[in-house]
Amino acid sequence: MKVAFLTREFPPEVYGGAGVYAEHLAAELARRVDLTVHCFGAPRTGLLATREYNPWERLEGIAPYLGALQSMSVDLAMAAGVEGVDLVHSNTWYTNLAGHLAKLLYGVPHVVTSHSLEPMRKWKSEQLGGGYALSGFCEQVALENADAVIAVSGRMRSDVLASYPAVDPGRVHVVHNGIDSEVYKPDPGRGVLERLGIEGNRPIVLFVGRISRQKGIVHLLRAAQSFDERAQLVLCAAAPDTPDIAREFRDLVSMLQQTRRGVFWVEEVLPRPELIQLLTRAEVFVCPSIYEPFGLVNLEAMACETAVVATHTGGIPEIVVDGKTGYLVPIETAGSNTEPADPAKFARDLAGHINRLIENPSLARSMGEAGRQRVIEHFSWASAADKTAALYAGVAARR
Known about the structure:
Blueprint: E1 2-7, H1 17-29, E2 34-40, E3 49-53, H2 66-81, E4 87-91, H3 93-106, E5 110-114, H4 124-128, H5 131-145, E6 148-151, H6 154-163, E7 172-174, H7 191-196, E8 204-210, H8 217-223, E9 232-238, H9 243-259, E10 263-266, H10 272-281, E11 284-287, H11 296-303, E12 307-311, E13 326-329, H12 343-359, H13 361-378, H14 381-398
Parallel strand pairs: 1-2, 1-4, 2-3, 4-5, 5-6, 6-7, 8-9, 8-11, 9-10, 11-12, 12-13
Helix pairs in contact: 1-14, 2-3, 2-5, 3-5, 8-9, 8-12, 11-13
């Protein structure tokens, strides 16, 4: 079977969980089907067959909706570029429209992986302006007409059906993301700590993610005001969604650094070996997301034997076992899904769970060990690829 795998992100241009998914799942799928990756950006060199696309014409200006229009122009080119395949598999709204158009053009099945949902991310109107309506359109038309939808968690499946009631429940399948536990494994090296000036004899609380409302990073900074005084906070945070949240984040980091030592903002995207060292050296990995359909970064931390404190939201409870591999922090969101209903309580609860682990290193270690064992037993890219390839075959057989 010839499959076109459509993605915005692909190495080396990876900035989020969807890019990690594309990298690892595509590698496994290529062992099972005749796969070509169609992606945004510059030409790639590597083991997988790739074809790259860029906007047909650069759109000048600063209007926030221009990025959505550029992405849709890539979708048009991508749809033209997949002719001759037996099936298309699109990822995120950035390529959903390309997959839908290919289905119409060539009469081939379209499989969609739902990594997140535009109706659940209303704060994106701040980022995209009218482009948010376009991103929602691309996602809706693709999901409602797809031959199959892969939800990355059981909660995501429920959200798909709630957000898009026209989608046939029988076409929505849960396939959890995986992780390569031979790549993500404990590395107690100190090189990255020394390079960044982080003290190796003090506990580390680590965050890794985008500077986004979705990731709850502002609430983490407020919680950090109540951290155990021994704790260091390391923020591997980049790619702000908007200039406004970039300024707010920078101001909060600056204020926190004035009141306590050991607050580090790592703006660069760390090479994977250095990130693995940080994940290993951290006493606590924290994921304060307001909305998180799966939360792959929690698997990465658990694979490195680090206890996790994460929000009880989305697919995270399908990864983190409360009281065994870390703690889940309850949250009630306001009607817009952009903020906790009680931000002060959420910050206090985050700090309380984090401090409990800092004060009890043996508990943190045992939770970390349990976390790695859970990763090995339940999450692998090979298993995800087996289920995805079987889904391809089933969809093709129904055509």
